[in-house]
Write a structure and sequence with these properties.
CATH architecture of the domain at 34-116: 2-Layer Sandwich
Enzyme class: isomerase
Family: Belongs to the pseudouridine synthase TruD family.
Catalytic activity: uridine(13) in tRNA = pseudouridine(13) in tRNA
Oligomer: single chain
Radius of gyration: 21 Å
Protein name: tRNA pseudouridine synthase D
InterPro entries: PsdUridine_synth_cat_dom_sf, PsdUridine_synth_TruD, PsdUridine_synth_TruD_CS, PsdUridine_synth_TruD_insert, TruD_catalytic, TruD_insert_sf, TruD_pseudoU_synthase
Largest sheet: 10 strands, mixed
Order of helices and strands: EEEHEEEEHEHHEEHEHHEEEEHE
Strand content: 25-35%
Length: about 350
């Protein structure tokens, strides 16, 4: 299926360019946000990989350490078609630390290892640092202007297209599942499809908000506001909007949109009404999420890249680096820069 064309914050770019001509053009460095304890039953193994997907590497580590695959965990998926630094966690209660000098897997290099007291769980990371090479830029001056705007004003915090599968296949199957046209039995596939459904609903609310307001920083009564960089949020009441708007303008607060599921979405009043109108045609997907006991949550609508820097190799080739919090997608940054040639393929969660 064809995915919706969600709104752009700075208007649809007329610039052409290419993302990821090769894996080396897309480097992802995972940032857990903490150091290993140095002791404990878990072993944190950090490695650099090229041409390997995350699950494949996890299974190889399990085999090498002679433990079940379920005893190897990681914070988030990273794309196969990139150079990524990532930490894996091996549960080794009462076992010696394996000698990883003999570990061999094509495309992988062990960087470091250390004992840790706690299991590394999904989502337990601070963020990811990205180092991109963007090629075949058709208009250097126009791209430079967009870079400046993104560095100060951010981009919509959309889930990247890779979340929805090739040609939107994950979302298409989720819709068919929701309408009882198919049954999904495999647990991992169910998780992928539910994630695609919820991500699309979030993107739709953000896009509609942007279409109506032309901004993602104008608060409405009942908006659920999140402390920047934090997961907690609170509801904005009308009499406090002037003070809260100032905090939003100062980047202390972010306006959130719903990740629909079971339970209340969290917003109230005008904000809730807008969200409900935006998803009025998606009752089947929302019912699927509720039926599958996916809990409702909130996510910031805007993300501003941190430590954003760039330099030009020549008039058509740009080196770009930035840091994004966990769950945000580098492709959402690139989407605001140019129309892409080739693959669109980072995964950072």
């Amino acid at each position: 299926m064809t995915l919706p064309e969600w709104q752009w914050l700075y208007g649809r770019p007329a610039i052409q360019g290419q993302l990821k001509a090769s894996p080396e053009d897309f480097v992802v460095i995972e940032d857990l946000g903490y150091q290993a304890d140095g002791e404990g039953e878990h072993l944190l193994v950090r490695l650099r990989k090229t041409g390997c997907n995350t699950r494949f590497v996890a299974d190889a580590l399990a085999k090498f350490a002679a433990i079940p695959p379920r005893e190897v965990s990681f914070a988030g998926m990273k794309d196969r078609h990139a150079v990524t630094e990532q930490t894996f966690c091996l549960r080794l209660p009462g076992k010696e630390t394996p000698d990883f000098s003999t570990f061999s897997l094509a495309g992988c290099e062990i960087l470091q290892q250390a004992r840790h007291k706690r299991k590394l769980r999904t989502g337990a990371l601070a963020g990811n640092a990205f180092q991109l090479v963007l090629r075949h830029i058709s208009d250097r001056a126009a791209l430079e202007e967009r870079l400046q705007r993104i560095a100060s004003g951010g981009v919509p915090n959309y889930f990247g297209q890779q979340r929805f599968g090739i040609q939107g296949n994950n979302l298409d199957q989720a819709k068919r599942w929701a309408s009882d046209a198919i049954r999904i039995r495999e647990r991992s596939k169910r998780s992928f499809l539910l994630s695609a459904a919820r991500s699309a609903l979030f993107n739709q609310v953000v896009s509609d908000r942007l279409a109506q307001q032309g901004s993602l920083t104008q608060a409405l009564p009942g908006d659920a506001l999140q402390l920047t960089g934090r997961g907690s949020w609170f509801v904005a009441v009308a009499e406090e909007l002037p003070q809260l708007q100032q905090r939003i303008d100062n980047n202390e607060l972010r306006i959130t949109a719903p990740l629909p599921g079971r339970g209340e979405w969290g917003s109230r009043d005008a904000a809730l009404e807008l969200e409900q109108q935006s998803l009025a045609d998606d009752a089947d997907l929302i019912a699927l999420l509720e039926r599958e006991r996916v809990e409702a949550a909130r996510r910031a609508m805007l993300v501003i890249p941190r430590d954003m820097r760039w330099s030009w190799r020549d008039d058509a080739t740009l080196e770009l680096s930035f840091w994004l919090p966990a769950g945000s997608f580098a492709t959402s940054i690139v989407r605001e820069l140019f129309e892409q040639e080739g693959n669109d393929a980072d995964i950072a969660e």
